[in-house]
Here is the input.
Amino acid sequence: MSLDQPALVLNRHWVPIGTVPVRSAICLIYRKAARAILPQDYSLHDFDSWSALRVAEDEPCISTVSLRLKVPEIVLLTHYAAYPRRRVTFSRKNLYRRDGYTCQYCGGRPPMQDLSIDHVNPRSRGGHSSWENCVLACIRCNRKKANRTLGEAGLHLLRAPAEPRWSPFVTIPLTQRRTSWEQFISNEYWNVELME
Here is the structure.
């Protein structure tokens, strides 16, 4: 059992707000900042009652010198009531995801190190770093465009750059998704496309 596997975090209103590694979930439970949820019956547990639960032989667990601890898959925060931010953070990593690691001028898919971020309206001409003004470009297209507008460079975008639709779990690979989470998150959350 890896302590780095994700555990679902719910705010105190039982709304999913993200994930944390299992090791962090255990710390939250121990510090009384969260309670573990047993998915079978939705019962809530503090650290003492969680550590007293029986662990089946074939069930993943965390073994210590003195106990075998069930792996918490879902935790409920005791005080935090806020909702997750409904916007995707503008970052290099998310821009690469939005554009599918593809040059937005020629459609090529070179290795990641051969892609760069291009400002559609150059910064020297008042362009800003934003979802609507930044795209991925291969080295060849970036050199061709240089410090010019699309018209001046004779280039066209494959699609207009836009802010991706929000998805609270955009960074969680489906392979890490746990079946116990489905009780709290509908499939619509998992099937949201990153692009509008």
About this structure: Strands lie at 6-10, 16-21, 34-38, 43-45, 61-63, 68-70, 74-77, 115-119, 134-138. The mean pLDDT is 86. The chain is about 20% helix and 20% strand.
